[in-house]
Amino acid sequence: MKIFNLILFLIFNLNYANLMDLNSDIKSSKKREIKELTIKNSKGTKVKITNYGARIISLWVSDNKGNFDDIVLGFDSVKDYFVSSEKYFGATIGRYGNRINKGVFYIDNIEYKLNTNDGSNNLHGGTIGYDSVIWDIKNFDETSVTFSYSSYHLEEGFPGNLEIKMKYEITKNNELKIQYWASCDRKTIVNLTHHSFFNLKGAGKGDINDHLLQINASNYTPIDKNLIPTGQIESVEKTPFDFKKLKPIGQDLYLKNNQLKFGNGYDHNFVLNKTKNSINFAAKVIEPDSGRIMEVFTNEPGLQFYGGNFLDGTITGKKNKSYKFRSAFCLETQHFPDSPNNPDFPNTILDPKDEYYSICIYKFSTFQ
């Protein structure tokens, strides 16, 4: 892993000095330079993005007094993402978001063995997931950017040549809209997601346990001590996982509960309540001091809520701020973890005749 990071660091230093101007002709570039792009809307909401990992570097959102703060964790320099112990800040995750038990799954009775990078499990696509590659930039304008990536057959062990397109867009309704499309030349599994670490007070400004959270889910998928789903789907009723109504994230965090013990807090998939609509409300977060509100909408069946349990103060981020324990949360729209090994979970197999499509919307507003 150290050798891989060194190689990436050297590649970065060769490319970073030649970052292209935002107005340059992207289509003519074939050298896969690492670039930084900014999109924004008329409300002043602004997102800085890099094609390294198709990741969000910063997201500036207004509070209820008109002051803007960057509400996602990360680094001031793109090169720091190469060597950080938390490589998923703001990144696009794939080929399979979350964990696959022992890095093994089957399609049509054929066994596929994946690279394992989380103990004995495959996490977020493996050693070199989509967070660690340089994406091509296909289109870029003031409010949106579209990336593409060609994932080759047996990359990290996944079958099939997968062609992916994903788009970030800032809408006039103050939505950060993230869309994914993919197709493959043979049966494969796909589960793409976005991995920003949010703090609605501002990146590095304390913990998130006083944020109010609502998750539109009556059930969740319990995990074992290795953070792998047991295969059961259980009710959140009368458990710390009941976020059907707004409550502080930290309200039930220290109750005696094996699931909280296994996850070192919240690190669980919630089974979203679905309607006949193609896009459904998934979650809402309110930060009481700033008045910021973030709502989440998706067509996905699940939502991973992660409470920053593995942040420990050893990572120095933007403006030399230390990212401390539970100083951020993630809300990752997704199919369920380890779905390929759980036939009762929603199917994640992509057939060559079909196209994969996923959408995640983070909508921002304020209250007075």
CATH topology: Beta-galactosidase, Chain A, domain 5
Low-confidence stretches: 1-30
Q: Strands across the major sheet, in which order?
A: 10-11-12-13-28-22-21-16-19
CATH class category: Mainly Beta
Strand content: 35-45%
CATH architecture group name: Distorted Sandwich
Distance N to C terminus? 48 Å
Oligomer: single chain
Helix content: under 10%
* Number of helical regions: 3
Task: Offer a quick outline of the entry.
The chain has 368 residues and is mainly beta. 7% of the residues lie in helices and 36% in strands.
Report on this structure:
The protein has about 375 residues and is mainly beta. The chain has one domain (about 1-365): Beta-galactosidase, Chain A, domain 5 (Distorted Sandwich). Helices cover about 5% and strands about 35% of the residues. It is built from 3 helices and 28 strands. The strands form 8 sheets. Strands 10-11-12-13-28-22-21-16-19 form a 9-stranded antiparallel beta sheet, with no helix packed on it. A 5-stranded antiparallel beta sheet has the order 18-17-20-23-26, with no helix packed on it. Strand 7 and strand 8 (about 110-115) form a beta hairpin. The longest helix has 15 residues, at about 1-15. The chain is globular. It starts with a helix and ends with a strand. Residues about 1-30 have low confidence and may be disordered.
